[in-house]
Every structure is written in C-alpha cells, then in structure tokens.
Amino acid sequence: METKVAIIKDMNKDIEDLKEAARIIYDGGVVAFPTETVYGLGANALNEDAVSKIFEAKGRPQDNPLIVHVASKNIDDLVVEVPEIAQKLIDKFWPGPLTIILNKKEIIPNKTSANLASVGIRMPSNNIALKLIELSGCPIAAPSANISGRPSPTDVERCIEDLNGKIDFILGGNKSDVGVESTIVDCTVMPPVVLRPGGITLEMLREVYSDITIDKAIQGKPREDLKPKAPGMKYRHYAPKAKLRIIKGNKEKTIEKINEIVQNYIENEKKVAILSTEELSNKFPQGKVITLGSEKNLNEVARNLFESLRKCDDLKVDFILCQAFEEDGVGLAIMNRLNKAAGFDILEV
Ligand code: AMP
Ligand code: MG
C-alpha cells in the first residue's frame, strides 16, 4: 500500500491535506496524526472494519481496546451517562491528555472497545487532531501510531519509520508536547480509579476529587494475582531493542553504579547508552550519554523519553542504563513507562 505523507505547517494553507485525511477516515481508511500526547493512528471509531485495520497495521492484540477521540465535550451520543465527577474532570481537563472510561452506548462497536461494556474517550488539545476529527464528522479511535510494543512516536519521522506502506495517510505536525500517553481514569466506579498515569497527574486529579485512587495492579512489579484494569497495561511495552536497566538510589551511588556497569560492558565489547538528566550528564565518562532534560523539569523528561529510547535503537546499543525518577507529579508516568520498557529490571543501590 502506498502511504501519502503531508506535513501541516499552516492550518489554513494546508486545509486541503486535512480534508483529504478526514475523507479517508470517513470512508473507512487509516490515518496517523499528531496529538499533544503522542502521535495517533486513527480510524472511524464507529466502523468496525475501519477499526480492524488499526489492529492489523500495529499488530495490536485484539483484547486491547482503543481510545475514542472526540472534538466536543458533549459525549452523550457515545456513553450511557456522564456521572458528576466525570463531568467535572471533563470540564477541567478537556481538551487535554485525559481519557475518561464510561459505560458505552451500542453505537460503539465491540471491536473498538475490545468487547468491554465501557469505552475510553478523550478530547485532544492539538489543533490538527481537533480539526481532523471535526472534518471527518465521526469520533476517531486512535492508539499510538507505533508498531505494538515499540516506544510511541512523538514526531512524524517515527510514524513514517513504523507505518510507511501499512496505512493510507500520515499527517505530520509539531512534535508531541506531553510525550507520554494520556492519563486514563475509570469513571464507571466510585471513587474513580487511575488506570494509567500520564500528563494529567494524580495530584491534579485529586484537586477535583480527593478520593480518586490508582489501580494497585500498575504499582510495583506485575503480580500474577492482580490484573491491571486497563487490558493494555499487562503487555510489555515501550520497549527499545536493547536491554534497559533502571538504577535506583541516591545520586552518588547511582552515578557510581552506572559507571561500574558501563565499564564492565565496555570491557566485554558491548555498546551501552546512558539516559541521564542534564544535571548528571557530565558524570559518565564512558558510554553514549543521551540527555532526557533537567531533573527540575520532569515535563521535559517525559517529552523526550520515547524519542530517547528510539535513539538508542538507532545507535544499535546492546544495553541502556537509566536513573530512576521520583514518582510524584509526572514522575509517576515517567517511571511507569520506564519500568515497562525495562521489563521491571530495577537495580537498587
Ligand atoms: P493506547 O491507545 O495504545 O494508548 O492504549 C490505550 C489504553 O487504554 C490501553 O491500555 C487500553 O487497555 C486502555 N483502555 C481503552 N479502553 C479501555 C476501557 N474501556 N477500559 C479500560 N481500559 C481501557
Ligand atoms: Mg500505545
């Protein structure tokens, strides 16, 4: 299949490209597009055949439901009801990186919700995404625009790398601002539960409703007896080709341990990359240092995380080492993605 690529630089001048992409979605095709979290791979959420093409292009497990993207805060056509707290969260955080899980109406096909009675819905804030949804005239089901298991793409080049030849159209735009996927809150239960941490932090959510909790199954290492409530959270994910290990401890010990391990790898003729904060980046004399951003700005670290993992793949390193981050604010989402990318290989020092 030939994939058309169009970069949207100016929404007015490039409107014909957007219209063409919207027409493809309406007609049952598949289009990659920018959002503020990561790039998405979209199809008409109400068309089962179209949605099947997303699963096929990504190699996504069939039991992993898709998030439905909308261009309006009014979602009455899609869900049975919007409870009071869900409405407050929508009013406060939409458009933005927050997905709300609610009981679905029949109009949402089982393919989209992976046979669940509920559906995840989000209104993105990216202008290109919003315009695409508006022009296509239908809600757009969209997971991240990567091959399943790989780190999510935060720019158009990475979409092309994974999906060229597999889908109809790739719309390019600015780099994703948040860099990690949306926060998911299950509002079918009381109190609501965070199923996946993201750019809207637990602290921000609790300002709206202080009793919001977090799914125990996504805290700490995976356990046989505790299944995550978001089906997708059980899969190994975000993984670079190289083996990633997280080093957790105070700064001095972390630096010392990383240098010791790097030395060892180099003696064994292995290539190794170190994902580091700006502050520590000059502490590692050997190995390829990739800077994630300042420890004082974890939003920047989140924004650069997936791209950095992909850079490690470009460099064809054998091993990657990364320091751990504090798990508050957006640090919770960063550590969730890092832990999964590392297959929970965490060395405490
Ligand atoms: P992605 O689109 O790749 O960011 O993945 C979407 C995530 O949302 C996956 O972890 C899904 O399991 C989760 N998800 C989507 N819909 C639901 C739902 N109705 N209930 C629980 N989790 C959901
Ligand atoms: Mg994904």
Automatic annotation (TrEMBL):
Subcellular location: Cytoplasm
Gene3D superfamilies in UniProt: DHBP synthase, Threonylcarbamoyl-AMP synthase, C-terminal domain
Xref: SUPFAM superfamilies: YrdC/RibB
Domain YrdC-like: 15-200
Catalyzed reactions: L-threonine + hydrogencarbonate + ATP = L-threonylcarbamoyladenylate + diphosphate + H2O
Superkingdom to which the source organism belongs: Bacteria
Keywords, sorted A to Z: ATP-binding, Cytoplasm, Nucleotide-binding, Nucleotidyltransferase, Transferase, tRNA processing
Function noted in UniProt: Required for the formation of a threonylcarbamoyl group on adenosine at position 37 (t(6)A37) in tRNAs that read codons beginning with adenine.
Protein name per Swiss-Prot or TrEMBL: Threonylcarbamoyl-AMP synthase
Naturally occurring in which organism (per UniProt): Clostridium gallinarum
Lineage of the species this protein comes from: Bacteria, Bacillati, Bacillota, Clostridia, Eubacteriales
